[in-house]
Amino acid sequence: MARTRLLLSLINFLALLLLLVAGQCYSMAAAETNILTDQSSLLSLKSSITHDPENSLANWSNSTFVCNWTGVTCAHVRHNYLRVEALNLSHMGLIGNIPPHLGNLSFLVNLSARNNSFHGILPNELSRLSQLMYINFGSNDLTGKVPSWIGSLSKLSKLFLYSNRLSGSIPASICKLISLEMINLSENQLSGKFTIYTYPSFVLLYFSFTLYISVAA
Fold this sequence. Notes:
The chain crosses the membrane at residues 196-215. By secondary structure, this protein is α/β, with parallel strands linked by helices.
């Protein structure tokens, strides 16, 4: 009887140990998958760039850890996993478009690509970047309308889309971004009405087009 109890205790101990090891392996695999997802998204961005005059993205390859890539900043997030937090491609002279895969950078907070020649539209998939606080695509060749999905980025505090070729009216959804502090949409082909709601920390507006501004409580 004692031997049976000892055997059962040993089996239970081994089963528990196996579960702990399996859980640890799963967590490590999940963490690796997440950072690899970020890496894959950025490689898709690199593939969409047709001209890199200064070879700025030369180290964007599988042989270099993604957090060491030029313009990429990582941070520890949930469960202390590393994820891409900031992407700065400003003043690199890049030509290309913005791929939808960029919307997979789930923990991206800062996105800056000003003073390049990115063309085309800002894809809808960027609406998944719910942590974004800063967007700067100033001085590029973006076309189409100011996307309405920007209004779903509840943490956004600074939005710069100046000096592009955007047209049409400003989507009403942007007017409801309660964290917004600065917005610059100058030097585009925009028109319409912009309603300022109660912004606790709203600081600056930059427009240079036909615009009607109203205030709502």
